[in-house]
């Protein structure tokens, strides 16, 4: 069974339909990357899928149940969400922010989960530092730690590597990939097509609110799709036993 299943989803934004008949499944063991040009509707698809944006037609199901019929606590325990906005309103210690990912655990357990998640993203040494004293990239890692502290089966992340340096981007995506390999599931938006090609099990391509491709990276990011959706001239090549996407402006 898919953890998350969108069926013929339509959604509106500011009175205009921006998502048209999107159907998408995310199953245990999968890392699914949702890609598309700016304004394609990626964030709206994520939010509609997890019940944070109204669906005008169609439905979204979590563990086979309509998303809004799932108990709020059960929903929080099943899925974790990292929004694109990286706002932090309080000058809390990094470990306290990370521990917020486990609101239903006893405080001591939540803190330990927060510490473990900070270590996972290489910022364990900053656990007692106020987040206002951290760099933008360090704050981003703390928020990633908060997401992983949920220990949710399904992780949904909107541009999780935005603002990170290259090494941190790779670390972040390795952590998401490991989560999927351990039996969890991941749905994320990415702008970097090379990273999507490298780490995703499936790539879903959104163009002007419609899903135009969904499959393994080499199929979904075909030269034809990349030219029509992104205006790119692209090819796939093999290096060190791995398929690499090479793209340039057409």
Describe this structure in words.
With 250 residues, the protein is an alpha/beta fold. Helices cover 34% and strands 30% of the residues. The strands form 3 sheets. It has a 6-stranded mixed sheet, sandwiched between helices. It has a 4-stranded antiparallel sheet with strand order 2-1-4-5, covered by helices on one side. It has a two-stranded antiparallel ribbon with strand order 11-12. Helix 4 (107-120) crosses helix 5. The longest helix has 16 residues, at 166-181.
Separation of the first and last Cα atoms: 40 Å
Neighbour order of strands in the largest sheet:
6-7-8-3-9-10
Structural class: alpha/beta
- Largest sheet composition: 6 strands, mixed
Strand content: 25-35%
Helix content, binned percent: 25-40%
Low-confidence stretches: none
Would you summarize the structure shown here?
The chain is of the alpha/beta class. It has helices at 42-49, 72-78, 94-99, 107-120, 136-149, 166-181, 193-199, 217-220, 223-230, and strands at residues 4-13, 16-26, 31-35, 57-62, 65-66, 79-82, 154-158, 185-189, 202-207, 210-215, 232-239, 242-249.
């Amino acid at each position: 069974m898919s953890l998350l299943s969108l069926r013929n989803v339509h959604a509106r934004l500011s009175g205009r339909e921006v998502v048209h008949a999107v159907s998408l499944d995310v199953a245990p063991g999968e890392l699914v990357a949702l890609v598309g040009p700016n304004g394609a509707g990626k964030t709206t698809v994520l939010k509609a899928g997890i019940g944070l944006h109204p669906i005008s037609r169609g439905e979204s199901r979590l563990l086979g149940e309509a998303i809004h019929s799932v108990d709020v606590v059960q929903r929080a325990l099943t899925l974790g969400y990292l929004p694109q906005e990286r706002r932090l309103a309080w000058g809390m210690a990094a470990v306290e922010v990370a521990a917020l990912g486990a609101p239903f655990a006893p405080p001591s357990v939540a803190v330990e989960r927060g510490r473990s998640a900070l270590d996972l993203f290489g910022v364990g040494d900053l656990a007692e530092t106020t987040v206002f004293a951290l760099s933008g990239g360090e704050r981003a890692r703390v928020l990633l730690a908060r997401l992983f502290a949920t220990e949710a089966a399904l992780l949904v992340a909107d541009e999780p590597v935005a603002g990170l340096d290259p090494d941190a981007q790779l670390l972040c995506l390795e952590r998401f990939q490991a989560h999927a390999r351990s039996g969890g599931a991941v749905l994320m938006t990415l702008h970097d097509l090379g990273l999507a090609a490298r780490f995703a099990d499936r790539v879903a391509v959104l163009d002007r609110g419609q899903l135009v491709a969904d499959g393994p990276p080499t199929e979904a990011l075909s030269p034809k799709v990349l030219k029509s959706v992104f205006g790119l001239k692209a090819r796939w090549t093999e290096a060190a036993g791995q398929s690499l996407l090479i793209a340039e402006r057409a």
